Amino acid sequence: MGLWNEFKAFALRGNVVDLAVGVVIGAAFGKIVSTLVDNVIMPPLGYLIGGIDFSDLVLRLGNPVADAKGAISGGVIIKYGVFLNTVLQFLIVAFAIFLVIKLMNRLIRKQQAAPAPPAEVVLLTEIRDLLKAQTRG
Length: 137
Prior knowledge:
mainly alpha; single chain; two-stranded antiparallel ribbon; two-stranded antiparallel sheet; Non-ribosomal Peptide Synthetase Peptidyl Carrier Protein, Chain A
């Protein structure tokens, strides 16, 4: 088998395609969560705690100086507000994934809990199917 055929067999395998779909959907979901946190959750939360915009929360170390163009140099700025936004986004994504997995587990348990038909019913069904096949052919 040539290299191209092996690669094609690998790339078109179900797991790879499922993974690619998951990555694309995950990226889109991440953008949705980022927008939700930055534009819906954080502004009212900042308003409730005194009009603070979390993305503007910084810790300045040293003595930063702004030049004539407004560029800041000197000192260090730690943007912990951006970190708080990212942590909140992670918690929302983790909770959403938890809910999806919980729903999937519930569906799997329902499917597994469905009682299997008794052996006699299975045997009679097979006999019926064989008799149908014999009368047709």
